[in-house]
Amino acid sequence: MEENLNLIFSIGGTIFLLALGFVVGTLRENAHFRSLEAREKTYSGIMVTDLRTLPANWNADQGTLVQGEVVIASDYFKGFAASLRNLVGGRVGVYEKLMDRARREAMLRMLYQARVAGANVVWNIRYETSTVGRGPSGGSSGAPMAEVFVYGTAYRVTDREG
Amino acid sequence: MLVVNTEVVPGKQILEVKGLVQGNTIRAKHVGRDIMASLKNLVGGELTAYTELLTEARREAMTRMLAQAERLGANAVVNVRFSTSAITSGAAELYVYGTAVVLSD
């Protein structure tokens, strides 16, 4: 009898965590995507590229280093969905979305610094991604966390014809 | 001190190359932050405490690099690169390096 109760509790707990991860995680993700889109529009005036040097005929100030970074965690449901996906292989869509969110958020933070510096282009950007480790819950079910860092040199270009 | 991650600075010339300068720091997450992060792990989203931790650590590494550049008598650090690695599951190393140079006015 007691064993049956324990079983019910452990299955119930897992289902609760999955449901919580799915409902809250999805709501927050959708809200984040909407916020990203809205903020990205406000930075449409700043050109971003990973080219190493400015065109020779452009006039610019000496430039400043700008950077943005974010640590993002997956949720319980995503971890579960990814572990299922691991059995059959293929695209892990839930994590693709997660990394997309992290990269765009880091980029926005860098662009904010560029705007504060009064720049209109960001040159030579580099992305740096690292996992901070699996979630503290650990084990194969621990949700992974990722760090995305982006940096570049922001210039105020005054004359593009030289 | 001017810091950029490009090789050249528009309108300036590199008069003297002082050499490679670098700074690193290793930071561990602390337990309080770990507990908050484990809660956040259930619903996903940004881990603000970790973001701040890494930003602080990167600033520290940068400060050490700039101190080296100053000792060498440079007035700028060009071609700066960042690198991050996980030493153990609880700690991260932040490393920044670049070339210390003397720029013309």
Mean model confidence by pLDDT of chain A = 87
CATH architecture of chain B: 2-Layer Sandwich
Structural class of chain B: alpha+beta
Oligomeric state, counting identical vs distinct chains: heterodimer
Terminal Cα span of chain B = 13 Å
The radius of gyration computed from the alpha-carbon positions of chain B, rounded to a whole number of angstroms, is 17 Å
Q: What tags apply to this protein structure?
A:
heterodimer; A: 162 residues; alpha+beta; Translation Initiation Factor IF3; four-stranded mixed β-sheet; two-stranded antiparallel sheet; 3 helices; 6 strands; 48% helix; 28% strand; elongated; B: 105 residues; 2 helices; 5 strands
Could you describe the 3D structure shown?
Chain A has one domain (2-159): Translation Initiation Factor IF3 (2-Layer Sandwich). Helices cover 48% and strands 28% of the residues of chain A. Chain A contains three helices and six strands, in the order αβββααβββ. In chain A, the strands form two sheets. Chain A has a four-stranded mixed β-sheet. In chain A, strands 2-6 form a two-stranded antiparallel sheet. Mean pLDDT of chain A is 87; it is low at 136-141. Chain B has one domain (2-103): Translation Initiation Factor IF3. Helices cover 35% and strands 44% of the residues of chain B. Chain B has helices spanning 31-43, 48-71, and strands at 2-3, 14-28, 44-46, 76-88, 91-103. In chain B, strands 1-4-5-2 form a four-stranded mixed β-sheet. Chains A and B meet through helix 1, strand 2, strand 3, strand 4 and strand 5 of A and strand 1, helix 1, strand 3, helix 2 and strand 4 of B. Strand 3 (64-75) of chain A pairs antiparallel with strand 3 (44-46) of chain B.
